[in-house]
Amino acid sequence: MIRLFIRFIRNLRILPRWVIIFIDVALIAFSVLLGYLLRFNFSVEELERNQFESGIAIYSFCGLISILLTNSHRGIIRYTGTQDGVRIFYMNTVNLGLVYATNFIFSLGHRPNLIPYSVILISWLSSFLLLFYYRLLVKQVFSYYRNSMVNQARIMIFGAGQTGIITRHVLESTPRMKVVGFLEDAPDKIGKVIDGITIFDSKTSELGRLLSDNTVNEVIFTASNISLDRKNEIVDVCVRKQIKVRTVPPVEKWVRGELSLNQIKELNIEELLGRESIKIKNGNIESDLRGKRIIITGAAGSIGSEIFRQILLANPSSVILIDQAESALYELECESKSMNISARLYWYLADINEKDRIRLIFEEHRPNIVYHAAAYKHVPMMENNPSEAIKCNILGTKNMADLAVEFGVSKFVMISTDKAVNPTNVMGCSKRIAEIYVQSYNDYLETQGKQRTAFVTTRFGNVLGSNGSVIPLFKKQIQEGGPVTVTHPEITRYFMTIPEACQLVLEAGTMGRGGEIFIFDMGKSVKILDLAEKMIWLSGLEPRKDIDIVFTGLREGEKLYEELLNNHENTIATHHEMIMIAKVKKYPYEEINRYVDLFNDLLYDKNELKSVALMKELVPEYKSNYSRYEVLDKN
Predict the structure, then answer these.
(1) Domain 153-267, CATH class in plain words
(2) Which CATH superfamily is domain 291-462+499-524+569-630 in?
(3) Residue 617: helix, strand or coil by DSSP?
(4) What pTM does this model have?
(5) Residues with Cβ < 8 Å from 18, sequence gap 6 or more?
(6) What residues contact residue 405 under an 8 Å CB cut-off, 6+ apart?
(7) pLDDT digit string (tens) for 500-514?
(8) Which residues are catalytic?
């Protein structure tokens, strides 16, 4: 019998509406009978004396009319919710009005009421409760038997606040998921129960046992105020237990203000790297940029495009975007059309080495500020093409700096890299030479009394999510089934997010007075092997079992460890505890300018060793690593 009932529930789709109407009318009739029984103390004689049969018939007939008028029967019972309760209340109220009207019309002939008013009120209340709760009962029966037929994921939610409660309801709207508990750090919540679900202590020392005892398959983060270190602790416990980790987006990112199941995403490795986001304390950024004409080179890149998005918030007069990547620049232009922008935008597909072309742009727009983000940055590619690194990173920077001075730009902010410190590759050295050029140019203008353009440099490490970053590569390799390729088991890197990097650039532009190289406290360096392993665990797979990890060896010019300062540099503090000014070796402008002219002469020389040798002469700390240019260091 039970098997037949389960099979019936499994095959049952939606009841015909006439069946729902019949059940509703039957329950209304029962509620009227109950009203009579309660009113007359279950006395059969009194019921017959008050013609209870006609009263039940009239009330039920009015109920049928009310059901048809309000369409209260149209809801799917297994999905009953608050709106169905409102609809039933509305139907009952209409029914009450019809019965009262019938009584009133009948009483005009000086006859007694068809139905006692006390019976009407009792029936009104009891019919509402019966109609609504029978629907909830059916919903629970369907839910119980449907859930018993599928394998449910057992989930714990970190955060027992409002977002956590909403997440629980969203998850349990599907039979495939069951919330078995909440996790909390707040002592005042631990041990309490929310809607039948216990709140557990998320103490790390006991978390592993708790997850095992409850056979948890997944942990979902809903708390927005959890620290990065705390989140990493919990994730580490989860990955060791092979428990999937997901996260709920902030409330402001919910679609139309509501959370849906497909918005609950797998936790990105970017959310676990680095440290807490920096908070810029300087309130002058917006006032410095408001109403200004601003040029951004490399505008379609990861840094340039984010600088563009952030400076728009300061309401500049116009933004001139320059890049030679056609598709990327077009995509940014399309994105800008969906933004609420007051500034005028100008899009130029141009190469910063074409001085005449860039001069025309300067002549037309007369910029106040230049953010110079254009650069070649891929180490192995530049190691194989040193002339392109020289052309773009050195000569392109010289072109932009010279034009900035020629047209009276007030601030020139250059984006550099930690690879410029004790460089071991062509790319890093080319960026160091660019740093030297703009800094020496700034000092030269000061000594000549011609200081109109302040040159400022920012230096930071790897940016999460940027083009060529290791994280998108690892994601792609994991999706393809591996192997994940790591160059060396001991290699480490610093990481920061794109918005953080761009906040630093904007802060430097405001803080700088000219000649500074700003560096950023990057926090702890990350071991790339650990990063790869954690990404595999977060994908629900096991390193070296499901996904292999292969060591490919350091690439040409690659370092094991990145640095933000060389051995002869130290720093000066600024008003922000995480932003410092590097004290670096100064170069005479005439000397560096002579070297840059020599680079220009050697640009199309087929002997690349000459160009690299000249770079090493200018930057003595440049020692090639795993590169064919190591021969120059020996000589």
Answers:
(1) alpha beta
(2) NAD(P)-binding Rossmann-like Domain (3.40.50.720)
(3) helix
(4) 0.67
(5) none
(6) 441, 445, 450, 452, 453
(7) 778 878 887 787 788
(8) 419
